[in-house]
Structures are given as structure tokens and as C-alpha cells.
Design brief:
8 helices, single chain, globular, mainly alpha
Length: 190
């Protein structure tokens, strides 16, 4: 297990600190993805089978560090794009009532904090994507693949809200660490 963790840490190494933050978030998501369907199975039983479809995005999340090493901005923007796509897939699988729309919040946050001021214009389409997904694309998905009881839906909402809060906290801690490092740098090095 230590070897696997060491390999993942080495894989996440990217020279650009913002891209390294994106790589870290992406790998945390990859590490948690297999557990998400298990949580939902505990809540909804076999009705949660579509949650396994969210694993289809795992290779794209896993690609973020490699893409970031190739092109920092592309890697950084890939993360919120994949996050939005995964969220839409999950909404189609389980429905909006389970609180899956909440995952668009960290996607918007990532699109906002992973770009430098000179890159903001280029990043605007990615920043708009979570809002478009919420307001327009999500409505086009139609009925979910399964229906669950209101109690199961409410329990899924709690799991999703806790997951989103955890993800936003992780992003906040990573960005705060970057700001601390930047503040500690001599002004000439910036």
C-alpha cells in the first residue's frame, strides 16, 4: 500500500503549484470514486446500481496530472470540465433530487481558483460550464435511470452534501497553502 501511495504522489508531481493542486484534487477524487457507489448501495440497495456509471470518468480524472505536466493550463481546466461531465452523468443516473447538483459548486470553484489573472479570459468558458450545466444541460437529461424513495433520496442528499463540503474544504486548504507559500516568497521572486 505504501508503494501505491508513493507512486501516486510521484505521479501527482507537477512543477506549476496550481497544476499540482489540480493534480492532487483529481487523485483524491480518483481515490474516492470507488467508494461512492458503495455508500449509495448502503442507502438504496440495488436501486443505486447506476452510481457505478460514475466510474467511467475515472480515467479522465486520472489524466489530469499527466495533462498538467504537458500543459499546465489545459490540465488545470481539464479538472472542472471532467467534474461537470461526471456530475451530469451522476444526475442522469440518480436524479437531481439526490443533491448531485451540489457537485457543480466545487467545479465552479476549481475553474475560478486554478487560473492566473492573465488566464481568466481563456478560462471563462470553463467557469461558465457549471452554471450552464445547472441551468440548461441538467434539464435536458430527462428522467434518471432509477427512482428511489424520498427517504433514500434524502439520505443520498446528505452523503452528497458532505462529499461536496469535504471537496470544497480540500480545495480551500490547497489554495490557502499556495497563498501562504506566495506570501512567504520575497517580493523579487514573484
Amino acid at each position: 500500500m505504501r508503494d501505491l501511495v508513493a507512486r501516486l504522489r510521484a505521479y501527482a508531481v507537477v512543477d506549476d503549484p496550481l497544476a499540482a493542486a489540480a493534480a492532487t484534487v483529481a487523485l483524491v477524487v480518483v481515490g474516492n470514486q470507488p467508494f461512492y457507489p458503495l455508500y449509495l448501495h448502503a442507502i438504496a440497495g440495488w436501486a443505486a446500481w447506476p452510481a457505478w456509471l460514475t466510474l467511467l470518468s475515472t480515467p479522465a480524472f486520472l489524466a489530469v496530472p499527466a495533462v498538467a505536466r504537458w500543459n499546465s493550463l489545459t490540465g488545470r481546466l481539464l479538472l472542472p470540465v471532467v467534474g461537470v461531465a461526471n456530475t451530469l452523468l451522476a444526475i442522469k443516473a440518480l436524479g437531481r433530487g439526490s443533491g448531485l447538483d451540489l457537485f457543480l459548486i466545487p467545479c465552479a470553484l476549481l475553474a475560478a481558483v486554478l487560473v492566473r489573472p492573465r488566464e481568466r479570459l481563456l478560462a471563462l468558458p470553463v467557469l461558465a460550464l457549471p452554471f450552464l450545466a445547472y441551468g440548461w444541460l441538467g434539464g435536458l437529461l430527462g428522467a434518471p435511470l432509477v427512482r428511489v424513495s424520498p427517504e433514500q433520496e434524502a439520505a443520498m442528499l446528505v452523503v452528497n452534501a458532505i462529499s461536496v463540503a469535504s471537496l470544497v474544504t480540500l480545495i480551500g486548504l490547497l489554495v490557502a497553502g499556495l497563498l501562504d507559500r506566495r506570501a512567504a516568497e520575497p517580493a523579487a521572486a514573484r
